Amino acid sequence: MELSMTARAEAGHTVLEIGGEIDVYTAPQLREELQRLIGEGATDIVVDLSRVDFIDSSGLGVLAGIHRRLRSLDGSLRLVYSHERLLKIFRITGLDSVFDIYDSVDAATAAGQSR
Questions:
Q1: How far apart are CA 105 and CA 25, in angstroms?
Q2: The pTM is what?
Q3: 21, 1 in Cβ contact below 8 A?
Q4: I need a labelling partner for 112 at 20 to 30 A (CA). Which of 14, 31, 78, 80 fits?
Q5: Domain ranges of the chain
Q6: How does pLDDT run across 41-62, given as a tens digit for each residue?
Q7: Top-level class of domain 4-104
């Protein structure tokens, strides 16, 4: 399955909406897009994973690397998803305690306003 990505500005954040599967084949595309957004000046990014069906360790690695990079820029990476199968992956790996996770883009951007 292919990966679809759409970026937009919303409430002072860059929101990247993703659909499809994030795996060893598509993770490089995700990394490139996030690096492009950072290169254009985005420092507060919300990644909407609501339409993601699957994510593997390479996808998790991309998100972790971007998270570290944004923190070094005094920025933030927030994730949006509510599917139990994705929540389970983040819980099992312990990444649910690393990332700020929200159930909607509105909640993620509202939390960023209080920084």
A1: 26
A2: 0.93
A3: yes
A4: 31
A5: 4-104
A6: 999 999 999 999 999 999 999 9
A7: alpha beta
